[in-house]
Amino acid sequence: MRPLTIAMPKGRIFDEAVKLLRAAGYRLPETFEESRKLIIDVPEEHLRFVLAKPMDVPTYVEQGVADVGVAGKDVMLEEKRDVYEMLDLKISSCYLAVASLPNYQKGELHPKVASKYPNLAIQYFKEQGEQVEVIKLNGSIELAPIMGLANRIVDIVSTGQTLKDNGLVELEKIQEITSRFIVNASSYRLKGKEIQRMIKQLQAVV
Ligand SMILES: Nc1ncnc2c1ncn2[C@@H]1O[C@H](COP(=O)(O)OP(=O)(O)OP(=O)(O)O)[C@@H](O)[C@H]1O
Ligand SMILES: O=P(O)(O)OC[C@H]1O[C@H](OP(=O)(O)OP(=O)(O)O)[C@H](O)[C@@H]1O
């Protein structure tokens, strides 16, 4: 049988997720975190790791080219992929918030919000009864209000340092975020034993 394929986000979640898998009893090579390879096989554990952009992990899992994956709740809410969300791994904890310059006053004629999460932002403001134009950015979101691209942003806050260093203030908290263990529906049927074992072992250490 093919190894169990895990889609892992590159970047900050990766190290924490690897640490968790090790704590759960999976023996992963010492050089694991240093490689630039995008596919890493660990035959001893019958595992294959696929390193994708964080936002793309649910796509790999939904399409079944990866059996399981690790994705932030922010990504799950933005992408709305058809996957099973099986476990809160409680890593990479942060929250989504609306922020602006301190002098922001509600009620502008054409409200503009910059975000890496356009779907999520539109849905959030709709729920608040506000129609906004969302300007999709790919990073450095905090630049937008300073540069006058948008009056507000929807972005991740963790320590609050980035907001502070850029003179922005938090207006509303939207949602707490942690990383989730996600599973492809067919894989769950076909490789249920292996996947359930992984979930059980992870559950014991989260
Ligand atoms: N400052 C933070 N502190 C803790 N967790 C965070 C923080 N920023 C993002 N995260 C979580 O980590 C995930 C991955 O974030 P990361 O910054 O590594 O990737 P990214 O910036 O979205 O990706 P890329 O820039 O490669 O497209 C996010 O989806 C979120 O769940
Ligand atoms: O509250 P803090 O601890 O300062 O963390 C929040 C920052 O971290 C993330 O950015 P990231 O480092 O991923 O950079 P990006 O601008 O490329 O998204 C997020 O988009 C914030 O900018």
From TrEMBL:
Keywords: Amino-acid biosynthesis, ATP-binding, Cytoplasm, Glycosyltransferase, Histidine biosynthesis, Nucleotide-binding, Transferase. It catalyses: 1-(5-phospho-beta-D-ribosyl)-ATP + diphosphate = 5-phospho-alpha-D-ribose 1-diphosphate + ATP. One of its GO terms (biological process) is L-histidine biosynthetic process. Its main location: cytoplasm. Residues 53-203 form the ATP phosphoribosyltransferase catalytic domain. One of its GO terms (molecular function) is ATP phosphoribosyltransferase activity. InterPro entries: ATP_PRibTrfase_cat, ATP_PRibTrfase_CS, ATP_PRibTrfase_HisG, ATP_PRibTrfase_HisG_short. The keyword Nucleus does not apply. CDD domains: PBP2_HisGs. Gene3D superfamilies: Periplasmic binding protein-like II. Its EC number is 2.4.2.17. Pathway: Amino-acid biosynthesis; L-histidine biosynthesis; L-histidine from 5-phospho-alpha-D-ribose 1-diphosphate: step 1/9. It is found in: Cytoplasm. PROSITE patterns: ATP_P_PHORIBOSYLTR (PS01316). One of its GO terms (cellular component) is cytoplasm. HAMAP family: HisG_Short. Heteromultimer composed of HisG and HisZ subunits. Catalyzes the condensation of ATP and 5-phosphoribose 1-diphosphate to form N'-(5'-phosphoribosyl)-ATP (PR-ATP). Has a crucial role in the pathway because the rate of histidine biosynthesis seems to be controlled primarily by regulation of HisG enzymatic activity. Belongs to the ATP phosphoribosyltransferase family. Short subfamily. Lacks the C-terminal regulatory region which is replaced by HisZ. This is ATP phosphoribosyltransferase. The lineage of its organism: Bacteria, Bacillati, Bacillota, Bacilli, Bacillales. The gene is hisG.
